[in-house]
Specification:
Two copies of one chain form a homodimer. Chain A has 13 helices and twelve strands. Chain A is of the alpha/beta class. Chain A has three domains: about 55 residues, Orthogonal Bundle (434 Repressor (Amino-terminal Domain)), CATH 1.10.260.40; about 120 residues, Rossmann fold (3-Layer(aba) Sandwich); about 130 residues, Response regulator (Rossmann fold, 3-Layer(aba) Sandwich). The first copy, chain A, has a six-stranded parallel beta sheet, sandwiched between helices. The first copy, chain A, has a six-stranded mixed beta sheet with strand order 7-6-8-9-10-12, sandwiched between helices. In chain A, strand 6, helix 9 and strand 7 form a beta-alpha-beta unit. In chain A, helix 2 packs across helix 3. The termini of chain A are far apart. The C terminus of chain A is likely disordered. At the A-B interface, helix 4, helix 5, strand 2, helix 10 and helix 11 of A face helix 4, helix 5, strand 2, helix 10 and helix 11 of B. The structure holds a DNA duplex (16 and 16 nucleotides).
DNA sequence: ATGAAAGCGCTAACAC
DNA sequence: GTGTTAGCGCTTTCAT
């Protein structure tokens, strides 16, 4: 026994308890075929020796690891961090370990899937808010690892997300209901994605306007990479258009923040002169008094984790995807159109 | 061989290459005692079979796992997410896997260290921005796992962080240099911590004022939990004090954001009526035009990762702690005191 | 209900 | 330089 003092093995437990290795194993795993008396005896020794099974040996002997890979871009942004937090909570409660892989750009993505660190390391992978392409998915499936998407949709494997289209509609419809007809949109795209896909938050805008018989003015739509700075730039351009929009719909709180800063600099009052609505309802929105569509991020994480747990316990089964509802949270950044400019 | 089709073992590689298991192992690990020719032959087979060693078996046979635990509170906040991103990049480049543990409150902390998931699972643990107490540290040391702190200081083990005192001084001195003498402070404490420790960002404020012969007005100091909302509340109180401060020093960008929102609501112009400075220089600061002291977060992560890597390669050695410099980034939120109120 | 023994996939002496 | 052979710490038939 070349064991260091601090790490007792199952064999130690067995010896001290006066039973065989096999029995000790059964007792520890609550397996059948152990008398209650023996079980208690063994568990007592486990307690006394402070024994913890080596996960590596377990995995080797058993064939599965109780480990899942979490592939996530943009840690550092609220949405992604919260999502990870939600997943971690649920998984760690179930005794499943999380291997973290951060992929910020398409190259990281590619590298992850080619090196397949997941390979032989995990039983499942959770991809946060980005699609896994068909080939990648098949390779994973071949090695028997289940895949789940959190915060994004897929046709090929189970996911949990919000209905981005509905969320967008809630935001734009809110503006429309307030009488706004000239609405700017700050849309963002993800450079993480291998190829651009249809943006449901944008489509919501187009549909809502169309349904209200409002023609879309392309100069009011700005597509940009995520980031407050870009949003501020775009907002400055919006302010220059004629007639100036009376409202702005931002795809995310961060974009809205940049916009509001630009508005403040230009002396445009919110919501008197211009209304701003966004999607996310992050802490930012609260600090800012921003009207925003709330999406339950942590809960998405929790549910994704449960789906994975299910997949682990029933290999082969395919979980049903889940779409969580969103809810408009009205704060001070939106108001009816046409409020007469207050005289200072 | 009960191997599924998709997962070749080293034994498979050896057989196909026509060498023994041992030789295959040596070749794969670039160990000594393998002729270049055989090595190439083996590696070719590895390539062809798409072989990846089972980390579990490696660890079991070798005794170490090339896995480290990352213990982090408050994912979802920029600082923590960025730090994790920095660490991940470096560690994954070195082929070390990261086990993620999220601890949001003292209870999570306690649970982490008591269940010691690290136990037998990792070779090292990195604690982000929170102290590991002496007893916890000793238990970890006993099991031979190295511990490193990122984004926080410790006297008991190596760390990498910024000099919070210096950062605070840069912020407050900037205000002082602009002629401000009545300066409010928005300080935050961490409920993650087991016990409150001296806050260097606060001390910087007290010292700076003292050195300039300015008496501290306790009513200008507000301690709060992290969050823009709390900052907004505190700011409202600051505005009510008489005479009203001409500047606010916030411990973080998020706090400053809340403050600026409160100021906007109150019709107080920044920086004409009141200057705001903070610490972090997160993307928020840029979007907001906020003067802030930049701290290199990702770099702290990178360095922490390197320290761990060193510890893994030279067990027993104690890495030297590192303190990274910070730098004031002046934007539009600060200006000289006494600017005459512009007449609207 | 319990024990003996055969692996799981790999590394590391130890021979040759 | 290469092959043989024990294990690493656990799970799991298969006996008893």
């Amino acid at each position: 026994m070349r064991n260091e003092a601090g790490t007792p093995s199952l064999a130690d437990v067995a010896r001290v308890a006066g039973v065989s290795l096999a029995t000790a194993s059964r007792a520890v795993n609550n397996a059948y075929g152990v008398s209650e008396a023996t079980r208690q005896k063994v568990l007592a020794v486990v307690e006394k020796l402070d024994f913890v099974a080596s996960p590596d040996a377990e995995r080797l002997a058993r064939g599965s690891s109780r480990r899942v890979a979490l592939v996530v871009p943009h840690l550092g942004r609220w949405f992604f961090g919260e999502m990870v937090a939600g997943i971690e909570r649920e998984l760690s409660a179930a005794g499943v370990d999380i291997l973290l892989y951060h992929v910020d750009d398409p190259e990281d993505r590619r590298e992850f899937f080619s090196r397949l660190p997941a390979r032989r390391k995990v039983d499942a992978v959770i991809a946060i808010a980005f699609p896994v392409d068909e080939e990648e998915r098949q390779r994973l499936e071949l090695m028997g690892v289940a895949i789940t998407a959190a915060g994004g949709r897929s046709t090929d494997y189970p996911y949990v997300s919000i209905d981005d289209y509905a969320a967008g509609r809630q935001a734009v419809d809110h503006l429309l209901a307030l009488g706004h007809t000239r609405i700017g949109m700050l849309a963002s795209f993800e450079r993480t994605l291998p190829a651009p896909r249809e943006n449901l938050r944008s489509r919501a805008y187009y549909d809502a306007l169309a349904e209200h018989g409002i023609a879309v003015d392309p100069s009011l739509v700005h597509d940009m990479e995520w980031g407050g700075h870009n949003a501020a730039l775009a907002t400055a351009q919006l302010l220059a258009s004629d007639p100036r929009p009376t409202a702005i719909y931002a795809h995310s709180d961060e974009l809205a923040l940049g916009a509001m800063h630009a508005l403040a600099l230009a002396g445009v009052r919110v919501p008197e002169d211009l209304s701003v609505v966004a999607i996310d309802d992050s802490p930012l929105a609260d600090s800012l008094g921003l009207t925003s569509v709330r999406q339950p991020v942590r809960e998405q994480g929790t549910i994704a984790a449960r789906m994975v747990l299910d997949a682990l316990s029933q290999p082969g089964s395919t979980a049903a995807s889940v779409m969580l509802p969103t809810q408009l949270v009205v704060r001070e950044s939106t108001g009816p159109v046409g409020t007469p400019p207050a005289v200072p």
